[in-house]
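Hi U.,

Before I forget, here's the chain from the pilot set. I'm dumping it here mostly so it's searchable later in email.
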Amino acid sequence: MISPTAAAAVAAFALGLVLTPGPNMIYLVSRTATQGRRAGLVSLGGVAAGFLVYVAAATAGLTAVFTLVPALYTAVKLAGAGYLLWLAWQALRPGGGTAFEVRGLPADPPRRLFTMGLVTNLLNPKIAILYVSLLPQFADPGRGSMAVQIMLLGLVQITIALTVNCLIVLAAGGIAAFLARRPGWQRAQRYAMGSVLAALAVQTGLYRPAAA
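Structure:
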């Protein structure tokens, strides 16, 4: 029901988004490095549940609310752009950190790991903006139910995001150790990710949906 072009476009955007540091990546890397891969995978399960919540909300007509209340959409968009700029500054500022810089976290039981993964994703403005701003513009009324198309496009994004995040969890310890031993690589990673985040913030701030 969705076109291959729309699916490919959403997959490409989802890949770029998941590879830029944000709350999900920072939490999963730190949790894995401090408590092990099993804890990271349980946390990833919570992140997956958060994605499903967003898909359900988008399918139920969340985007229609923003169409009816443009000021609310603008507020969410600008807040998301500001947050992305803040993340970019954290990466680019002198002495800034990287998503693979291990942050000490207390050991938590599986239920709390899952819950924290869920909450971290639900409060992630990158994901909110993706579902509010991006997915609806790839749904074509001429190809059938808009709700079904948004759901399918959301599942494309979830597949990409979970695959990449799972690989990050499995490799987190090795990547963190590699960067810790090579300050030059760590700086390059910070500058590259900071630049991508800044560009994404500008794109988010300037984006206007087709229905606007």
